[in-house]
Amino acid sequence: MKQILLSFLAISFLFIACNKDDDEPQQPQVKDRMELLTSVAWQIDHLYQVQGGQKAYYDRGGSNNTYNYGSDLLKFNTDGSGTYTTSAGNSYTIEWQFDNAGKTEISYTINGFPNGSLDIKLENVFLDENNFRYAEMYTNNGLHTGGSVYRTPGK
Questions:
Q1: What residues pair up with 137 in beta bridges, in sequence order?
Q2: pTM for the complete prediction?
Q3: Per-residue pLDDT tens for 14-25?
Q4: Architecture per CATH, 33-153
Q5: Fewest CB atoms within 10 Å of the CB: 42, 53, 97, 108?
């Protein structure tokens, strides 16, 4: 009788232990930087830059913007290609890559831009599902440009 009772308790314990594992909450899947960057097209929410000594400012919904980036979209694909669409509706192909192992630096080239291809360097890249922020540097038509850009998923 003692043996039957011990067998019953052992089986009960195994059943309870198996059920307990099923009840534990699953940890959310963490996306890597490639997946975060390429999962959406990114729109500008805020931009502050200096180009050739002139300041440019854009704040989505703001009234004192120096330029309208309201329809500007930047889309990165996992194969190193992508698309840049200006607020004027012009669309250009891009080629891009991460420049360091931490994936906090990105270089991309906008092909066929009005003054030729445009090489852009992004540093201090911060990425999560709702934010893409970075420092941006490039030279366009002889004008050196640097600034900070905040993007969110496009609508």
A1: 121, 146
A2: 0.80
A3: 445 555 455 666
A4: Beta Barrel (2.40)
A5: 53
